[in-house]
Amino acid sequence: MGVLLWREFGLDNVMNQCFGNEFDTSGKGRQMPVHFGSPAHHFHTISSPLATQIPQAAGVGYALKRTPARQHSIAACYFGEGAASEGDFHAGLLLASTIPSPTLYIARNNGFAISTPSTEQFYGDGIASRGPGYGIDTIRVDGNDVLAVLAAVREGRRRCLEQGRAVLLEAMSYRQVAVGHHSTSDDSFAYRARSEVEDRKRIDNPISRFRLFMESQGWWNAEAEEELKTRLKADVMTAFKKSEKFQRHELGELFTDVYGGEEPWNIKEQREELTGLLRKYGEVWEPWRTELAKFKNAGQDLLKR
Amino acid sequence: MHTTKFSARAVKRLPSVVRRWNSTSAVEAPPAGGHAPSIATSQILRTTRESALKTPGLAFADEDSSGPSRTIVGGRETRKMNTYQAVRDAMSIALQKDETAVVFGEDVAFGGVFRCTMGLSEEFGRERVFNTPLTEQGIAGFGIGMALMGHTAIAEIQFADYIYPAFDQLVNEAAKVRYRSGGSYNVGGLTIRTPTMSVGHAKVEQVPIDDFELPLGKAEVLVPGSDLTLLTWGTPVYHCETALHMLSSPSPALEKLVPESLRSVKIELIDLRSILPWDVETITESVKRTGRLVIVHEAGMTAGVGAEISAEVQKRCFLKLNAPVKRVTGWE
Asked: Which residues form the Transketolase-like pyrimidine-binding domain (chain B) (predicted)?
């Protein structure tokens, strides 16, 4: 999401995807929240299963190399230290080093995959130690040091282009999302000490560290910090409130994009089946009527076909 | 850095966030469908000890399985459990009775993301109930290896769509090892668990507390009938129950759409229970009596399990059918 915001995807697009509403351009409300995607921002749509992007990114890098106008571009691929346990990780790095493909692999090692600490994820020396095994230039960086990450990514990109093959970067961090839980149904205090999380939040946190650096340079102060926090919070809430009011995509979108080109008979028949059901029950059956109102044009796109 | 927030794995559990948002944005609760039964109020659920103990095919491990089928319910206790509690209970029994049994998978040690292994690692130790790295092909292969050694391997695949990386191990290895080794090796001791039913936790039933088994390849007739066979499995069992209720006693809004003549039809509702082997005998016996078959499943129609059953039933019951077999399935 950070990449997308940096590339001016915008909070509205983020929120619309999370709500899966009619303005969700990432996937027409078909995917779960945080599954962003945008060709305009050169951002491949996120998929739920883990690590599938890693071998794909090797293919993307190779395609970039073979596209005359894109020869100064590389593929960047993000994943966590947990995903690096999937077979796809090994397949992807092997391909990106052998074929080879200018792909920058950015592993974010924050120590936890849901409840599983990295000590149960690997016995070796993290993710970085695997790079040399695949013949890939590798760097491990303090992921909580914003400037160090920037420098490492720049150098990684330079080497990708210079050598035309993959580079692996491991950013060492510590999961500290807001209150520190993986998601709302998670209670991370079941497997992490409260004091440990608090200490990390206070001392070794990329945001507070960068703020302290800026303050020490005289570029930032408590007042600016407060102003920024307030403004960002307001921006997020505005986007949130706007987004939650929108309807869903048209109901007929259920049947689009299954295949490209001419639509086969099975999809046509299944759409007609739904249309027939709508015609019969859409008005009279209250639960359906209520549900239909949530879609743009309330199912009329199907009924008027 | 909000690192895991960006990963697909993290958002797997975000539906709960969405639910919370909904509850604060004046979106009404899902319609209950009038007074029709839903999963929470289903008549099919075994909510009494007696009905639980009369589950067809139920066999207790300490009874002689060659004996007559179970009709006596004396001497056995049941307890109220939801799906994940029942799964946890079964694994606890396996771990107690079988020294070779182990339970493993992603985030299993802290209780599992669906809470199926709550307390098991504390009770049986981390050597027997343990986390694996995030590698489904590894989990399946590891389980196969243990099972090949005659051990009991109980593997969890965290979410249903995570199982596909394991398919090489499952299809090319687990399914074929007995055959390709000429019967020298088998993985009979391997169990792969994946989630079922998005609202499975709401399903509360009485469950026998002793060590018991239910048969594979045996369907269960939930509602007897004579005019049409309605065959399903998994979550749609409860949708079918609701549909039967709506057909026999339509709400005022639907009365006009449900002809009187259809309201008294006797529909036989069958839960297939296992997909392979599937209970061809029970299904064909039923269809020969009713002359009609409707198959309901969640997966898409094309090349779905319904297609297989439909082909077999049309072959075996061709002269008894009064209508083509109908499939009601997920859209593709």
From this structure: 81-264
